[in-house]
Design brief:
The complex is a heterodimer of chains A (114) and B (111). Chain A has 114 residues and is mainly beta. Chain A is built from no helices and eleven strands. In chain A, strand 9 and strand 10 form a beta hairpin. In chain B, the strands form two sheets. In chain B, strands 2, 4, 5, 9, 10 and 11 form a six-stranded mixed β-sheet that branches. Chain B has 111 residues and is an all-beta fold. The chains are: A mainly beta (114), B mainly beta (111). Chains A and B meet through strand 5 and strand 10 of A and strand 5, strand 9 and strand 10 of B.
């Protein structure tokens, strides 16, 4: 597509429920990143994909968080047993390859855990 | 030491003035440098990239890079109220394929 598409744009969920966040990167972009941004804070790196593999999962905050990417395209970030501290904007970005090129960010998913 | 540090804000400038944003980085091997603009409630948008020492101009924006000093800056000339946003400096990490982001500098342009 023309840009990075994320869905849903907003998600309100009850504490303890599981959520899935979706990212559809720019066609041809092999690298895909997930970041989290809490209100008024900077970008917190979560996970990086090159193709379908995830060489760097170092930013995932706990084992409740997981992500996958299929077909070198769409990625899903899953949060199990959501907690209130998971409330944030989850941003996906894609780029041609690694960090040599700037990322293009999606518009984000605002997750609110009540 | 943080990988990317930006001058603390917020930065308030009058309309028409020059806003100067600074960023330092720790990895001498970094080769790619970017500035992102993030409006409140929106996602970051890439506005400038620079790869070589010196200045790069794009409209009212000028990025400056000095690899010897590990320093990159962004100048916004003739600042407009629409430039009010948070500006993020990003630097590639050559060993791990991802960008490191600074915490951002919030700029407010006073009409």
């Amino acid at each position: 597509g023309a840009g990075v598409s994320q869905s849903p744009s907003n998600k309100v969920t009850e504490k303890g429920k599981d959520v899935e966040l979706r990212c559809d990167p720019i066609s041809g972009h092999t690298a895909l990143y997930w970041y989290r941004q809490s209100l008024g804070q900077g970008l917190e790196f979560l996970i990086y994909f090159q193709g379908n593999s995830a060489p760097d999962k170092s930013g995932l905050p706990s084992d409740r968080f997981s992500a996958e990417r299929t077909g070198g395209s769409v990625s899903t970030l899953t949060i199990q047993r959501t907690q209130q501290e998971d409330s944030a904007v989850y941003l996906c970005a894609s780029t041609l390859s690694g960090g040599d090129y700037g990322y293009t960010f999606g518009s984000g998913t605002r997750l609110t855990v009540v | 030491q943080k990988e990317v540090e930006q001058n603390s804000g917020p930065l308030s400038v009058p309309e028409g003035a020059i806003a100067s944003l600074n960023c330092t980085y720790s990895d001498r091997g970094s080769q790619s440098f970017f500035w992102y603009r993030q409006y409140s409630g929106k996602s970051p948008e890439l506005i400038m990239s620079i790869y070589s020492n010196g200045d790069k101009e794009d409209g009212r924006f000028t990025a400056q890079l000095n690899k010897a000093s590990q320093y990159v800056s962004l100048l916004i000339r003739d600042s407009q109220p629409s430039d009010s946003a948070t500006y993020l400096c990003a630097v590639n990490q050559p060993t791990d394929y991802k960008l490191s982001f600074g915490a951002g500098t919030t700029v407010t342009v006073r009409a």
